[in-house]
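Predict the 3D structure for this chain.
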Amino acid sequence: MSKSSFFTNGPASDFGYENVRAARNEFTARARENCEALWKIYAPYADAHFLIEVKRSFDARYWEMYLATFLIHEGYDISCPKPGPDVGIEVSGRRIWFEATCPTRGADGSPNQVPKRRASSAGQLPVVEDVPNERMILRYLNSIATKYNEQYVAWLKQGVVCEADSFIIAINPRGLGHDHADTSPPRVLQAAFEVGNPYVSIDSETMTKIDEGYMFRDKIEKASGSEVPTGVFNRDEYIGLSGLLCSRVDVVNQPENMGEDFQFVTNPRARAKLPDGFRLKGVYFRVDHNDEGYLVTPEASDR
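Done. Predicted structure below.
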């Protein structure tokens, strides 16, 4: 248990950090208490620069701390190597690594940037706007590629992780603004598999539904015309990726019990598959083979 404070004096470039540190209302005061409670548990595992970096990257570092603390609450002994993935556990003799990431909206001025949500003024009706789903999936894919190709591959070369270890990328898309609610199918599945928007087939004579499902989509076109492949689980270069975890928790918005909002899907083609029966709280997407590819079924998990 740490006796140091999560919040420290001095300038901070992250508005969220400053706002919670000041704790001027009941919501930010409760958020500050939450940060301090998690920090007491997580501090022994944090890197030496954590309290400095959290001042400029509050959401990302909070998500890293939340994930590690959740695993401790679940009864796992964690390890946090430096350098290395954010947190590791051992299950049935298998090492499982988690690397946390928070997709950003993208570079200012980029035509592919996820636009900010428009806020309605007091006393006015809520603003109705299109959700830029494909741009958001591009941000998921960008975060996955960065963590996998730039960090996981480097850790393999350095011997920090090995090919027999399972590796999970834990995505928190809250910072995208529009991602406070999910789509059908969930965005994490749209990144993992070649699946797009839902469709319904209607009989033109009887106007009754005859079929429904999800459209096949194996790439997303950027504003420049270049194409970004989706379906990372079906791409050979991601064979070391064992699963994807998604959560929209932040310091203010979180479920009553830690992990209840988690979405967890495993890679059926992974080199190091996760141990049989390994689950986390929230929704687990069971993946089964069928004649057309994979059947993905959501299952509630209490672990």
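Residues 133-158 form the longest helix (26 residues).
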